[in-house]
Amino acid sequence: MSNLIAIRESAVSGGDYSPAKEKASNRGVYIGRSTLLHRRFRLLIGGAKYKLLLLFCFLTSLYSLSSRLSCLMGWNPHYPSSVSSPSRGGYTVLINTWKRNTLLKQSVSHYASCGGTDAIHVVWSESNPPSQELRAYLKNVVLKKSQTAHKPNFRFDLNEEDNLNNRFKPIEDLRTDAIFSVDDDVIVPCRTLDFAFTVWQTAPRTMVGFVPRMHWLNEERNGLAYYGYGGWWSVWWTGTYSMVLSKAAFFHKKYLDLYTSKMPSSIHDYVSNERNCEDIAMSLLVTNASGAPPIWVKGKIYEIGSSGISSLKGHSYARNKCLNDFVSLYGAMPLISTNMKALDARHVWFW
Fold first, then answer.
1. Low-confidence ranges of the chain (pLDDT < 70)
2. Is residue 279 flagged as an active site residue?
3. CA separation (Å) from 190 to 168, 184, 256?
4. Under 8 Å CB-to-CB from 194, ≥6 apart: which residues?
5. Which residue among 118, 185, 194, 279 is the active-site one?
6. How many Cα atoms occupy the beta-carbon half-sphere of 164 within 13 Å?
7. The 295-297 sheet, strands edge to edge
8. Please, which residues bridge with residue 119 across strands?
9. Residues 181, 184: Cα–Cα separation, whole Å
């Protein structure tokens, strides 16, 4: 129709216009109607292609958004892992558990599916050893869930007494330098775990983890410094941290030996008696030995169990006391504050 209007306008604006010529032009329109319909059809098809392209782009964006939202709303255990254990060295997953076999099964199943997992060790400190049924189930899960030809080694590390220091005992025959220490109720998606592992490879002397905490100087009395222990909201408010908790953190295997053999026995006794603060003790140990602050990796993790001791009344007071007592035993404050944060820019909206 636009072509027809253009033809008529040019005819009207010309000097040779006459009613007879207009009638002749109209007759020509009817004669060329098939050509005009063909052109309209082509325009329609072209418009449809354009609309389909827009629809495809919209659906693609919607799918991407839904994928991001699913990651925000819940854990996707089947997301593929990008780290290959044989070629990248891999890591040993060290799971601390206590009478939560259901959570342990979920945890072992998940970490067996991560491509960087070279071995899985379960720190077992219950009075009764794990049942044969549990052993068989977990070994079968590791073989079934592993996504690589290299199947992770699986083993229980048995202890005769219930002691939080058990989670940092040295492990014989380790094939990796990297230890990923994790509680049985904490799930870190494989892709996020792989990224944290690559961060740790750039700084293997320090701790790299997902749960930051901080300390600050409260006051000085009689020449002695007293420190406060800050949880997540303190980190969020100040943008500063000085610890990453061992409930989800990478560190070098040498720190297992240092914790067990070199750290003052008074700290071992303190952790054993108070049944708390082994994670603070490890943070102090690593920073004291490395002279470097930890690295916080920003990534979504999932706590699949019920509330732990951090939700109990008096938890903040106990953590403050642990921190100051440990500093007193060290004779100095070894923790180093930092504002750095590692994140994977490929999977964030703004960076």
1. 1-88, 306-313, 350-351
2. yes
3. 23, 15, 24
4. 81, 82, 83, 114, 115, 116
5. 279
6. 19
7. 153-158, 117-124, 91-96, 178-183, 248-252, 208-209, 295-297, 341-342
8. 92, 153
9. 10
For the chain, the first-to-last Cα distance in angstroms comes to 50
Both tokens of residue 168? Answer: 């940092």
Token pair 């980190």: residue: 235
Q: What is the pLDDT of residue 236?
A: 93
**Sequence-ordered list of residues with C-beta below 8 angstroms from that of 90, at least 6 positions apart, any chain:** 83, 116, 117, 118, 175, 176, 178
| Pairwise CA distance, residues 209 & 318, whole Å | 22
Give pLDDT tens digits for 165-213: 999 999 998 999 999 999 999 999 999 999 999 999 999 999 999 999 9
**Phi, psi angles (nearest 5°) of residue 139:** -65, -40
Q: Which two tokens stand for residue 131?
A: 């049942």
